[in-house]
Amino acid sequence: MDLVAFAALNVDGKSRWYEIDLLTGRAYHIGRFKIWQQVVDVALPLDQDD
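and the corresponding structure tokens:
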């Protein structure tokens, strides 16, 4: 089981998608949103087999 979380954050005026390592607290930039797209909610499926 990976100990990760995901976050949509506004950094330097840009909306970006991050994966957060819950053991270290380090955030990894993994994507971005278009400037006109505002993120208000995120839903992820749980317990998915790889």
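(Above: one complete record from the training split.) Strands lie at 4-11, 14-21, 27-32.
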